[in-house]
């Protein structure tokens, strides 16, 4: 059991991390790359009518989990109306009621939707074959003739519907012309097609929707035919028989009913307007998670105040830096000052940028070291000496900042509080190593620390990594798993292959 | 292909790497609670004295800055002495005074230092500057070893010592550490001292290693380092083996100095002995650890263990050519 303990722990950590990561990335739609935007649309339906006296009820279809889209937000705008929403058959409807309307009434329904590649709508079960309609002659035999001919040229339900729609459009022979005329509206054509499909016992329905464009007002509703191929509803264009909705098409309601049904009112009008928007993908995913009531969002970093968020943006990268240190120290064998000093140096590079940071670091550390050796001659005790070094380092930075500002170089100014402490500590550590192990060790460890810090810094400033760890903090579990795994590495370090090269070619003893 | 060695070849020779040392030897055989016994040289000295082992005589201990005023009284007994931190690591913070002229002291480098300078060193030691983790420390003032003339020609200042690696109470490898100009009189290999392999069976020196290179002569004096016979080798190995009993540490470095008058003195113990000893002996520790594992029996006396190890490894180290 002891042997499997660590591997099991590592596997559990990785599995946990990946599960959460997958859920957030693919179910909630958190973006994998930084600064990603998602387009969304604000769709507004404007319903107008004239009351004829008395209490008015207006029933309006509204979208219900439209295919390929996700609703982020809904607003109902009306003055003096009571509102309920509910499901009616396949559709959702809003019911506005008022007792004493006067003059022309206008109601608004506004919704924000965005594209979602995964369809959240469960697949509709097959409603079963429909019973054919009872036609009178000559319709009955004509319909039979049409169906027989279409069946001969089609392979399955979908192609049957496609061929039928094309026939209705193109071949006004005597059988078909009984059912259609060229002046028929789309809606009438769909109605006819549904009837004829019913003759072949194929379930079909009418769908009404609008295309989501960049920006437009007074959008025309489009009417589509949908047939059920026993697995799912397949949309068919009533004009040319092509299968599938175009990109960014929003189905508003199904069925042959009017979108607005009024009680004690007349002249219903409905018009649609669409505006496309670009939103930060993270905001969209967050809203979405809230709509979906995901418990994960209760633990999201995005709920924290912005300042705390910014702090964690930096802090979350420290584990990654620590992982790099483990890698470079235990696998490669680079010597550094202390264990985590390089991570701290890397963090201070964030404020100065790499090249400026390295130059500044080397400059201040060498100057500080020189002063430290001078202080040593004064025979000060450890703590006062460390304090003196800090004071001198601040004065050095001050001088450097003023000098570089006067010379017009802005890098020197970016030294903040944090790097200062790190520089002072580095100087103290380096001087001790210098004294005790000699200059070569001190310089080697200094360069090692800088190199490790630079590597950690380059990884830490990578915007994708920054973004990934902030949006998906559960990735820290993977960093932990990797570190645990490295903790069991007992093989040779790369540097030891050089160190022990004297063994080369000798006989094994 | 010249400047490195393949890991496969290293593994075949049984060479132990840093990670393996930390995981398989130190973490496995050295329980943490026992570390203070060897990290505190004062406690080590007491343990060794209780066990009747020979150690350099302790003149006095300074524990606070206030006590520094006792320094003249402590060092009055002898013209030469050594000041070292009780928790020092890697030979850091050791001040060797070889002689005295009125109020000034001569350091091993030949430079003079006054009483104030010595006091400053002591207070640095007390502040923890030379200690593991920078903890406040104690300063020990003790007998300066007058090392055996055997190593006179192959040392540059400082005191050469003999490091024996003891595994589960069996001496498994040893080397003589010779200070050089590079190492500033210190006997640590990573500071530039020469490590000379010792045949465990005979106590005769073989080739040496300096800055990870194989050498035959001392880099400063040019004297050959091979074929030197360490006197009282059997007793020295037995002393090393006994250190297992007094500490309980299964992977131990025992540092012994040869004093001209007092013979082998146990200087200090190390719970994390380095790996350079492998280079000095041209042999891997892993091989020898495996051999001991196969021979190991409970309840053997230190003499028996030392003798057994001598038998096992007499041919292991390369004979002096």
TrEMBL record, chain A:
InterPro entries (UniProt xref): 7TM_transglut (IPR025840), Transglut_i_TM (IPR025838)
Residue stretches spanning the membrane: 6-23, 314-334, 354-375, 382-403, 409-430, 442-461, 467-487
A UniProt-annotated Pfam family: 7TM_transglut
Keyword Transmembrane tagged: yes
Keywords of the record: Membrane, Transmembrane, Transmembrane helix
Ranges of residues in domain 7 transmembrane helices usually fused to an inactive transglutaminase: 261-503
Domain Inactive transglutaminase fused to 7 transmembrane helices span(s) in chain numbering: 23-182
Taxonomic superkingdom: Bacteria
Protein known as: Inactive transglutaminase fused to 7 transmembrane helices
Organism: Ectothiorhodospira haloalkaliphila
TrEMBL record, chain B:
Transmembrane segments: none
GO biological process: SOS response
InterPro entries: ATP-grasp, RimK-rel_E_lig, RimK-rel_E_lig_ATP-grasp
Superkingdom classification of source: Bacteria
Keyword set includes Ligase: yes
GO molecular function: ATP binding; metal ion binding; ribosomal S6-glutamic acid ligase activity
Protein name stated in the entry: Alpha-L-glutamate ligase
């Amino acid at each position: 059991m002891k042997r499997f303990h660590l591997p099991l722990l590592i596997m559990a950590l990785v599995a946990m991390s990946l599960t959460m990561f997958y859920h957030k990335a693919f179910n909630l739609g958190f973006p994998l790359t930084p600064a990603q935007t998602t387009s969304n649309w604000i769709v507004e339906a404007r319903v107008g009518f004239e009351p004829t006296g008395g209490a008015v009820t207006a029933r309006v279809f509204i979208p219900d989990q439209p295919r390929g889209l996700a609703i982020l937000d809904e607003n109902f705008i009306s003055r003096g109306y009571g509102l309920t929403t509910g499901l009616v058959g396949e559709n959702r409807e809003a019911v506005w009621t008022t007792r004493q309307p006067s003059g022309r009434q206008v109601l608004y329904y506004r919704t924000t939707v965005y594209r979602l590649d995964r369809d959240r709508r469960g697949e509709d079960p097959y409603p079963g074959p429909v019973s054919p309609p009872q036609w009178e002659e000559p319709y009955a035999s004509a319909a039979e003739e049409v169906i027989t001919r279409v069946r001969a040229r089609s392979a399955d339900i979908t192609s049957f519907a496609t061929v039928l729609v094309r026939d209705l459009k193109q071949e006004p022979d005597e059988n078909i012309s009984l059912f259609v005329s060229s002046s028929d509206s789309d809606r009438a054509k769909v109605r006819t097609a549904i009837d004829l499909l019913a003759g072949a016992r194929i379930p079909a329905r009418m769908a009404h929707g609008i295309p989501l464009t960049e920006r437009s007002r007074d959008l025309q509703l489009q009417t589509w035919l949908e047939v059920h191929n026993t697995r799912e509803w397949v949309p068919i264009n009533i004009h040319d028989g092509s299968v599938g909705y175009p990109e960014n098409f929003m189905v508003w309601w199904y069925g042959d009913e009017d979108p607005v049904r009024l009680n004690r009112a007349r002249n219903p009008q409905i018009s649609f307007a669409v505006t496309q928007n670009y939103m930060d993908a993270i905001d969209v995913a967050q809203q979405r998670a809230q709509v979906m009531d995901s418990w994960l969002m209760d633990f999201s970093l995005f709920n924290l105040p912005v300042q705390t968020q910014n702090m964690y943006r930096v802090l979350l990268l420290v584990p990654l830096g620590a992982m790099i240190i483990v890698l470079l120290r235990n696998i490669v064998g680079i010597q550094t000052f202390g264990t985590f000093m390089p991570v701290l140096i890397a963090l201070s590079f964030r404020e100065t940028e790499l090249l400026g940071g390295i130059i500044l670091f080397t400059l201040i550390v060498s100057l500080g070291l020189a002063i430290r050796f001078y202080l040593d001659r004064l025979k000060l005790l450890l703590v006062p000496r460390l304090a003196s070094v800090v004071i001198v380092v601040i004065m050095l930075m001050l001088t450097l900042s003023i000098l570089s500002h006067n010379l017009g170089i802005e890098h020197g100014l970016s030294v903040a509080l944090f790097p200062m402490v790190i520089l002072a500590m580095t100087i103290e550590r380096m001087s001790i190593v210098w004294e005790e192990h000699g200059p070569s060790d001190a310089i080697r460890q200094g360069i090692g620390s800088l190199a490790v810090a630079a590597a950690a810094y380059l990884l830490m400033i990578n915007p994708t990594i920054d973004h990934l760890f902030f949006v998906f903090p559960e990735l820290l579990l993977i960093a932990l798993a990797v570190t645990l795994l490295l903790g069991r590495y007992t093989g040779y370090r790369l540097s030891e292959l050089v160190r022990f090269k004297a063994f080369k070619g000798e006989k094994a003893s | 292909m010249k400047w490195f060695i393949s890991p496969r070849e290293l593994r075949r020779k049984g060479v132990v790497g840093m990670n393996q040392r930390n995981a398989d030897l130190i973490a496995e055989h050295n329980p943490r609670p026992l570390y203070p016994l060897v990290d505190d040289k004062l406690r080590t000295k007491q343990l060794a004295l209780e066990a009747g082992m020979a150690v350099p005589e302790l003149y006095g201990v300074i524990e606070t800055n206030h006590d520094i005023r006792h320094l003249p009284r402590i060092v009055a007994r002898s013209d030469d002495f050594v000041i070292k931190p009780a928790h020092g690591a890697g030979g850091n913070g050791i001040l060797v005074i070889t002689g005295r002229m009125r109020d000034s002291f001569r350091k091993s480098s030949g430079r003079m230092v006054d009483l104030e300078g010595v006091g400053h060193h002591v207070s640095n030691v007390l502040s923890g500057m030379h200690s593991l983790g920078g903890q406040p420390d104690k300063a020990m003032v003790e007998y300066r070893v007058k090392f055996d003339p055997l190593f006179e020609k192959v040392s540059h200042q400082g005191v050469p010592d003999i490091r024996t690696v003891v595994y589960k109470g069996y001496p498994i490898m040893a080397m003589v550490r010779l200070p050089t100009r590079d190492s500033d009189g210190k006997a640590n290999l990573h500071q530039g001292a020469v490590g000379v392999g010792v045949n465990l069976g005979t106590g005769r020196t073989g080739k040496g290693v300096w800055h990870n290179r194989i050498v035959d002569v001392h880099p400063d004096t040019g004297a050959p380092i091979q074929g030197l016979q360490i006197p009282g080798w059997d007793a020295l190995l037995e002393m090393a083996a006994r250190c297992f009993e007094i500490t309980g540490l299964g992977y131990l470095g025992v540092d012994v100095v040869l004093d001209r008058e007092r013979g082998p003195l146990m200087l200090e113990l190390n719970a994390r002995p380095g790996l350079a000893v492998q280079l000095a002996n041209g042999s891997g520790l892993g091989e020898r650890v495996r051999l001991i594992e196969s021979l190991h029996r409970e309840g053997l006396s230190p003499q028996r263990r030392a003798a057994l190890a001598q038998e096992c490894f007499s041919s292991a180290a390369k004979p002096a050519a």
